């Protein structure tokens, strides 16, 4: 069901959310909900648009000649370097947490699964954009294979890189996790991912800003609450720099 602006405004008015703000403002729970910019952004965007709407895809001749690396260029840890030296032959993607069937998938198996190829624009919070071609496994396929438990609400992406000693991580709710353009990419521009771009796999969540596109993904964890991950805000930059958890564009 698509909610129009007229229906949304009418519904808010009928429910007293556009009138009586002083009365609602006296209640801490309502105040927390109504005056959170992040919650309002996410609610309004999803109420007024199709939740499964696709990000724009481009032609191959529109791809950027240079695609900068965002974030970390190389985790630089002994464990990660050992994987690089062996071509990631011993690497396994862990899928665990609130799942019925925990997985440990080698890169070769991921590459043998049904692949989605998409040419999309990466929009970095630093102010630059680039168009690239991504090859990867739809995240939905992996989550279906693992079998999410009913209590699962979020997917946490644990990564190999560390910043200031803290492990990098990101998270999505199930709406974005099951979006058809959300993939774990193992290839870029018709080649395997380079170290700079997140080898062996990185997240592509095309309707969100670049910091949500976690690189060097080692583990997917299905959880019911984000408060136990990192410092509890749902991502490294959300924890340390107050970035918005929902980075929809």
Automatic annotation (TrEMBL):
The Oxidoreductase molybdopterin-binding domain is annotated at 88-225
SUPFAM superfamilies with a match to the protein in the record:
Oxidoreductase molybdopterin-binding domain (SSF56524)
Q: Which InterPro entries match?
A: OxRdtase_Mopterin-bd_dom (IPR000572), OxRdtase_Mopterin-bd_sf (IPR036374)
The organism's superkingdom is given as: Bacteria
Designated name of the protein: Molybdopterin-dependent oxidoreductase
> In which organism is this protein found?
Sphingomonas horti
């Amino acid at each position: 069901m698509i909610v129009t602006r007229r229906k949304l405004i009418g519904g808010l008015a009928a429910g007293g959310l556009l009138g009586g703000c002083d009365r609602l403002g006296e209640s801490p729970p309502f105040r927390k909900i109504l005056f959170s910019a992040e919650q309002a952004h996410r609610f309004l965007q999803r109420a007024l648009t199709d939740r499964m709407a696709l990000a724009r895809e481009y032609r191959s001749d529109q791809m950027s000649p240079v695609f900068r690396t965002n974030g970390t260029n190389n985790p630089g840890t002994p464990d990660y370097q050992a994987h690089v030296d062996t071509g990631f032959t011993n690497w396994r993607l862990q899928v665990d947490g609130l799942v019925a069937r925990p997985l440990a998938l080698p890169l070769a198996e991921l590459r043998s699964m049904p692949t989605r190829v998409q040419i999309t624009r990466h929009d970095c919070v630093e102010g630059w954009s680039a168009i690239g071609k991504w090859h990867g496994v739809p995240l939905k396929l992996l989550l279906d294979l693992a079998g999410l438990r009913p209590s699962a609400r979020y997917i946490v992406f644990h990564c190999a890189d560390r910043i200031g000693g803290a492990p990098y991580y990101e998270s999505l709710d199930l709406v974005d996790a099951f979006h058809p353009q959300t993939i774990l990419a193992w290839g870029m521009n018709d080649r395997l991912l380079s170290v700079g771009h997140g080898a062996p796999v990185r997240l592509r969540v095309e309707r969100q800003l670049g910091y949500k596109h976690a690189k060097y993904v080692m583990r997917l964890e299905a959880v019911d609450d984000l408060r136990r991950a990192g410092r509890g805000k749902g991502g490294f930059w959300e924890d340390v720099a107050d970035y918005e958890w929902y980075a929809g564009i």
